[in-house]
Amino acid sequence: MLQTTPLLKLESLSRLTGCEIYGKAEFLHLGGSVKDRAAEAMLDAALASGELKAGGVLVEGTAGNTGIGLAVYAARRQITCVIVMPDNQSAEKYQTLRALGVELITVPPCPFSNPSHFYHTARRIAQERGAFWVNQFENTVNSRAHYQTTGPEVWEQTSGKVDAFLCAAGTGGTIGGVSKFLKEHNAAIHIGLIDPAGSGLHSYLTTGELKSSGSSITEGIGIMRLTENFKTAIIDGSCAVDDQEMLSMLFHLARHEGLLVGTSSALNAYGAYAYAAAHRGSGKVIVTILCDSATRYASKIFDESFLRGKNLDPMKPLPTL
Fold first, then answer.
1. Cβ-contact 89, 66 below 8 angstroms
2. What is the CA angle 292-194-106, rounded to 5?
3. Closest C-alpha to 159, from 179, 134, 197, 185
4. C-alpha–C-alpha distance, residues 213 and 316, integer Å
5. Distance from CA of residue 176 to its chain's centroid?
6. More confident position, 2 or 90
7. Whole-number percent of the chain with pLDDT over 90
8. What b-and-e string marks burial along 14-41, b requiring 16 or more CB atoms within 10 Å of the CB?
9. What is the pLDDT of residue 1?
10. Among 53, 246, 249, 258, fewest CB within 10 Å belongs to which?
11. How far is residue 245 from each of residues 32, 202, 257, 273, measured CA to CA in Å?
12. Neighbouring residues of 36: CB distance < 8 A, sequence distance ≥ 6
């Protein structure tokens, strides 16, 4: 059973902006990420509906964290997991999944239109084996889980005083569920999308077209299509954050807050910082998601040769906005 995660005040960012910036510590879940919420909910919904039987098999395509969450909660329910991933994700995710006993299948990264994409591969394997395909991108149990848990927690933990909630989207489940809950309680709450390079969602929200440029070392966020979960989101604005901004924030949080967070967490924190800087001195209460831990990406983000190869500088300070 999932536990409520705390809101951590990001003191240094709050001082810099004159706002109250909080990160929801989702890395404290049993599986180590925000994806635990959707993973457990989708698993239990499938068992309740009969789509998945006790002792059965599930298949899912994932960048890793949903797969880890599914593996954790499936192990506690005696369900077998087959996880399909692109082969360019962090080594730590593969190691964790293998330790959890899943059948891990990796495929080369490719556009969604390619039938070899991890999403289509997972669907095909599920069909061939007569297994339950989780389909986290289109399965709206995902966003409902955040509507029922994450949104209420943010509301209660801020005593209803939250002014803005911002985060990135992968499946769209988190921003979909949280935005819907918060908007129902106070339509004036600003909901912001934070998008990495290579994703088309910021372009879609600002121009109406799904266009992207560049690429990002972040994993599990950003997408070039509108999922059923993302369609549930009520979004007021968006911003794009590049990898250097993200990386500067990642090391800023480590050195000034004692928080070792992953790349999507750092991207979220930068977006919250930028929003706060635009409302400097207002005292606004701003919440974002700290999705997972830096240890899940250590072989990349703590490897200076890897970073230099991507023209990224781990020593570059956080810019003053």
1. no
2. 50
3. 185
4. 23
5. 12
6. 90
7. 98
8. bebbebbbbbbbbbbbbbbbbbbbbbbb
9. 65
10. 258
11. 24, 16, 17, 11
12. 2, 26, 29, 30, 69, 72, 73
In this structure, how many other beta carbons lie within 10 angstroms of the beta carbon of residue 55?
Answer: 9
Helices (H), the chain: 11-17, 35-49, 65-75, 91-99, 118-129, 141-148, 150-157, 173-185, 201-207, 243-257, 263-277, 298-301, 304-309
pLDDT (0 to 100) of residue 2 = 80
Among 306, 293, 237, residue whose Cα is nearest residue 25:
293
Residue 313 burial (CB < 10 Å; 0-12/13-18/19+)? middle
Answer for the pair 243, 218: CB distance below 8 angstroms, yes or no: yes
The values of phi and psi at residue 22, to 5°, are: -125, 145
pTM, entire model: 0.97
Which two three-digit tokens encode residue 311? Answer: 């023209």
Mean pLDDT across 117-135? 96
Angle at 293 between CA 29 and CA 27, to 5 degrees: 20
Say if residues 250 and 196 touch (Cβ distance below 8 Å). Answer: no
| Token pair listed for 319 | 């810019």
Question: Hey, what amino acid is at 48?
Answer: A
User: In whole angstroms, what is the distance from residue 272 CA to residue 257 CA?
Assistant: 15
Q: Which two tokens stand for residue 46?
A: 């499938």
The tokens describing 29, both together, are: 């879940």
Asked if 212 and 242 touch (Cβ cutoff 8 Å), the reply is: no
Is residue 185 classed as helix, strand or coil in its secondary structure? helix
Q: What integer pLDDT is reported at residue 116 of this predicted model?
A: 93
Q: Give the number of other CB atoms < 10 A from CB of residue 231.
A: 12
| Residue 23: predicted pLDDT | 98
Q: What pairs with residue 85 in β-bridges?
A: 106
Q: What is the mean pLDDT of residues 192-216?
A: 96
